[in-house]
Amino acid sequence: MLLRTLSLALGLGLALGGTASAADRLGSYRIDPAQISVSGISSGAFMANQLHIAHSATFMGAGLVAGGLYGCAVMTADEKGVRPLASIATGACMSAPALLQPATTYAERIRRFAAQGWIDPVEGLGRSRLYAFTGKADRVVNPETVRRGVEVYGLLGLPTAALSFSDEAIDAGHAWVTQAYGVPCPDNRAPYINACEYDQARMVLQTLYGPLQDRATRLSGRFVAFDQTEFAPGGQAAPSGLWDTGHLYVPAACETEGATCRLHVVLHGCKQSAQELGDTFYRHVGVNEWADSNRILVLYPQARTVNVNDFPTPRLTDIFNINPEGCWNWWGYAYDTRYLFKDGVQVKAIWQMVQRLAGRSD
């Protein structure tokens, strides 16, 4: 589901077919600035982790499902930034946990990055809340990667009381887990949404926001398709790994005059974007039903595949910078060696979407 192997990445140069539909400009709502959070599955978990750590003064919590160890694919880091490798992503981060660095190494890097001003001060992480999940049958991302990520949060001040960690307690494959929608629970296959009689959406939102009203049995709100290209450098979404169109779920209560709502960002994994699955992910992972009855807007940014033809100026190294499975950028593809930081292309794009929704300037 994530980038399977480095050789697979080098061997795939064609993007999946299809184009995004026309979409409107993303609007603004009355958002409680203290109630903005993020979650994700697989590559989306790594990106959720990157967003949370880069902007911990704003994101009050994160949900990490089957992924999420900050800087896991980094080979070296210095005062100029990082040098990541896809081979570390597919090796240590996914299948060879013995090659992972100690949690103290990742935590110290985060402190150094904060000292450089590339991410928010780490003190914000100590005031956060965290949901983490790894399935017992996950054969894509080794559970130790998720455990190591949780350990890093602890070293940076996250209290145990603010953590909900399902550590191989459920026989789930590599997937976002639902009560009844998707393939059988232990499977490691598309669409990577598994029916496990476990309401992961509820657990994520309850961990981050506390007690919830009962989920809606029928959605009251609407889905909004919005233009993501304006958030991409130069308006060119494809070379950045961004799909042209993102999606937003707006509960009816959030469109009532004077109503204040919360905002939760949900990030799909590889092979789960609208480019690949249409509306399957953003309609069927169960988040909207809980959001609807609890005044939570849900932002679903969309990644896309990147192939050599998407780069405007051909270079011999383009083949090393592609993204054949539509993953979020957690190993520095598309020449983005700043992908971990506030000025990383995708981190910045999603951050600007959040700022727009909250009615703030960048």
SSE order, as H and E? HEHEEEHHEHEEEEHEEEHHHEH
* Unreliable spans: 3-21
Amount of helix: 10-25%
The helix tally amounts to 10
Number of domains: 1
**Oligomerization state of this entry?**
single chain
DSSP strand (E) fraction? 15-25%
User: How far is the first residue's CA from the last residue's CA?
Assistant: 33 Å
Characterize the main sheet: 8 strands, mixed
Cross-sheet strand order for the largest sheet: 6-5-2-1-12-13-11-10
The assigned structural class equals: alpha/beta
The geometry reads as globular
Kindly provide the radius of gyration, computed on alpha-carbon positions and rounded to a whole number of angstroms.
Answer: 19 Å
Q: On the 0-100 scale, what is the average pLDDT? A: 93
Number of strands: 13
InterPro entries: AB_hydrolase_fold
Protein name: Depolymerase
Signal peptide: 1-22
Keywords: Signal
